[in-house]
Amino acid sequence: MAFPYAVKASFWRGGTSKGVFFKISDLPEWFQSILNSEKQPDNAQFRRMEGFFAAVMGSPDPYGRQLNGMGGGISSLSKAMVVGPSSRADVDVDYTFFQIGVKDGKLDMAGNCGNLSSAVGPFALNTGLFRGQPHNGSRTHGVEAASVTMRTRNTNTKKIIESTFEVFRDNGAWQYLELGNCSIDGVPSTASTIILSFLDPEGSKTSKALPTGNAVDELKVGGQPIRASLIDVSNPGIFIDGRDVGWNADADPEKLNANQELLEKLERIRKEGTKKMGLDPNISSIPKIVLLFPAKADGMDISCQALSMEQAHKAVPVTLALNLGVACKMEGTIPNQLSKHLHEANTVIGHPSGTLEVGAAIDDGRIQSAKLIRTARCHMDGFVNITGGEVEEIQQ
């Protein structure tokens, strides 16, 4: 190692996000103890984890660039995952997602990240956490290849996600096969296909898909009534018609990020909807708010502009896309009203970087699963510095 204060880690792209991945057994003992307890960390434990991730990612950074760490200056590039053996016999691995504030370094572990979830299975396989066997094996040009279906459990939402991806045998061990012909909007080049199936996704942080019991609620913000669908599928979301706040589908995220007045109004709407859902309005990661529009191009069912951590997203967070795809099939919701319904089970969602297709399996009103395709790539495997450069950190 080039420096004395470091932890083994990998740096992955999953979908349209990037993050630092840790195997739980490689973390300091105090950190392992917190996660293995499966209890909500107390304030002192939470602050200690916050300091750990802030140092890794390079936060807080008033310049918003995270130059002193692994972060990339925006919410989709300031994330981390901790992966380990599952405590359940019917699950292969457990994982916990951490969102780290860019400018303030605040830690948020309230929800899940669907994009980074696509890299959990490949990371678990490569690090020896998966003990199952591949299926559909074949040999091409002397290379032994197969598929893996791994059951992963997100501890933030207590939900199970099945991940199916390609593998190959390397020196007797199965490894994730990155190369392939699958492309997703927002990511250059191609990679192998990863199919994520979010099982029984309704009620991730509340008790049901419609926490208020209504397909549409009215939120009063500054004396103005705003119609919103408050939906909890995969991750909670607040969906409004973007035209109700004077926005349009053709405006790019940078324009919205420059409109501080509207951003503040949307945050007030988000907080009002959060309270109605029975969630904490002071947690900024969930629920997220999404502006919806009629499809702006042929082949799309609906268009959207998502916000994350009070910033306009350049694509759409996967868990929100899953939520939106299912919501488009839920009678009476705003997504359902705006969708073209081009496909019986799937929804093609337009976002600022392209499109994303979500499949919803609904039987007799019960949401059984939500599916989508992602890709992933490991950028680096090695050690990451866990100090932010402060002397006090290494004297504890």
Automatic annotation (TrEMBL):
GO terms for molecular function: isomerase activity. Keywords: Isomerase. Pfam families: PrpF. Belongs to the PrpF family. This is PrpF protein.
